Amino acid sequence: MAGGDRELYVYGFSDPGLPRRFRAGGHNLRVITVGDVEAVVEAGHARTRPTREALEDQHATVADLAARSTALLPARFGSFVTEAALRALIVNHQPRLVDSLALVRDRRQMTVRVFDEGPAIPPPEAPRSSGTAYLEARRARLRRATAEAEQIRRVVNDLALAERIEPGEHGLRLTVFHLVSNDAVDTYRARTSSLAEQLAPHPVTITGPWPAFAFVPDLF
Amino acid sequence: LSRKQPAPRRAPRPGRAKATGHHSTIPKAHPPHRAPIPHPPRSHERPPPRVAHILDNSEASLLDVLDNLLNRGVMLNADIVLALADVDLIYLRLSALLCAADRVLPDDGRR
């Protein structure tokens, strides 16, 4: 494979300002700049399955990057691409990337999870009839989650600058991702501490701050 | 007539990742009961907030790692060489996104 076709592992896209080469999370990274977007990549990254170790390693590296950058859009796990293709991708999606970087700039993701009360309910037998029933059940879960998320939104309405709702299953009722200003994280935590009472008897967990994983556009 | 020849350093294969017990993201038990904290009774006082601890720290961390990294899918990469009589004829590079449809498609945009 020619040098230009050598595949790079993409960790994410960032605001300009990172050093050309640096070390983060135990990886030797370099930055490819195209216009107002920087891609953080690693050459020679080993191809691995998404094992727990590999996932935790990438999570830690992305967290390290987010701490160094004003805005970071984490890439999907397993994103290998040649430099030429990466440059083309950034050129083709430059406006969307710039908008997404603006959305997450100086902000962090907070995650609220609401669980079913009591022990985890074992997953039901997969319906033998059709996939339609399965998809309809998923839609029903989404509708329920959207309604329950409204209760959470009322608590953090002025703090949550963006929101994404994921319906849960198998004991997890829903997950809500909020984008919060860096300086509002403590206030967000304080406010959401009341959710355990408000959503009782459903247990609630609040985690974060995280890089804005849930607010990345789908590029590749 | 043809053979598939996967390159040795190939893509992550999430479908083969072992689902071991400690990878579970499902809460397994009731929140542990906590001993009540001695408190002087006050008639106008609201009931104490219910604090739910259903995940220990490592489980919560793993759940976040999984959510953050896998929730929107993973990229699968593969190279396939189709050959005939030990002569490589066709090289196929695949790059695919493996993801639940509702993670990447707008909810109303589906058939």
Q: If helices are DSSP runs of H or I spanning 4 or more residues, what is the number of helices of chain B?
A: 2
Which descriptor suits the 3D outline of chain A? globular
Q: Gap between N and C termini of chain B, in Å?
A: 39 Å
Q: Compute the separation of the termini of chain A in Å.
A: 22 Å
Overall geometric form of chain B: elongated
Task: Name the largest protein-protein interface in this structure.
Answer: A-B, 50 and 47 residues
Question: What is Rg of chain B?
Answer: 25 Å
Question: What percent of residues of chain B adopt helix (DSSP H or I)?
Answer: 10-25%
Question: What is the N-to-C order of secondary-structure elements of chain A (H for helix, E for strand)?
Answer: EEEEHEEHHEHEEHHE
How does the helix and strand content of chain B classify structurally? alpha+beta
Low-pLDDT parts of chain B are 1-34, 37-54
Helix fraction bin of chain A: 25-40%
Per DSSP E runs of 2 or more residues, the count of β-strands of chain A stands at 10
> Can you tell me the residue ranges of chain A where pLDDT is under 50 for at least 5 consecutive residues?
none
Q: In percent terms, what proportion of residues of chain B is strand?
A: 15-25%
Multimeric state: heterodimer
| Major sheet summary line of chain B | 3 strands, antiparallel
Let me know the largest β-sheet of chain A.
Answer: 6 strands, antiparallel
Strand content of chain A: 25-35%
Please provide the ordered H/E string of secondary-structure elements of chain B: EHEEH
